Automatic annotation (TrEMBL):
Name of the molecule in the record: N-acetyltransferase domain-containing protein
Entries under InterPro entries matching the protein: Acyl_CoA_acyltransferase (IPR016181), GNAT_dom (IPR000182)
Gene Ontology molecular function, alphabetical: acyltransferase activity, transferring groups other than amino-acyl groups
Gene3D superfamilies reported for this sequence: 3.40.630.30
Taxonomy, superkingdom: Eukaryota
Domain N-acetyltransferase, chain residue ranges per copy: 9-97
């Protein structure tokens, strides 16, 4: 069974130029019995010279499609929930996940300070995907 998946990103017009990376740092099970879910701990980094060009939005959308087996990939990672976390001061990821996609973050206190956390299930992604015109 798949337990992680990380990919490099490159623009279509320059496939040899890596501009970032992202994917699932780990895929794990949480809970027990009928409450058990597979969680994909996701992350993304884009070189700052390529910010605000839509690459992160495209990459995160592809990550959700892969996680929930909506892409043409034959591999089904069987992920129930995609999980993102970052420091609360990270306005870029908040702008992407809350601004572009409309997901709600939960703030929590961690050892490193305040963090923002998103947990997105398949039905929520399918709804948002349609609303932002990615179908």
């Amino acid at each position: 069974m798949i337990d992680s998946a990380v990919y490099d990103f490159a623009p279509n017009n320059q496939p040899s130029q890596v501009i970032g990376m992202g994917g699932f740092n780990s895929i794990f099970e949480r809970g027990e019995g009928e409450g058990k879910v597979r969680v994909g701990d996701a992350g993304i980094m884009i070189d700052s010279t390529h910010w605000r060009k839509g690459y992160a939005k495209e990459a995160v959308a592809a990550m959700f499609d892969w996680a929930f087996h909506l892409s043409m990939e034959e591999v089904d990672p069987k992920i129930d929930v995609v999980f993102f976390e970052s420091l609360a001061a990270n306005n870029r990821i908040r702008g992407l996940l809350s601004g572009c996609f409309g997901f709600k973050a939960v703030l929590r206190l961690a050892d490193v300070g305040e963090e923002q956390v998103w947990e997105i299930g398949k039905s929520e992604w399918e709804k948002r995907r349609g609303e932002i015109g990615l179908i």
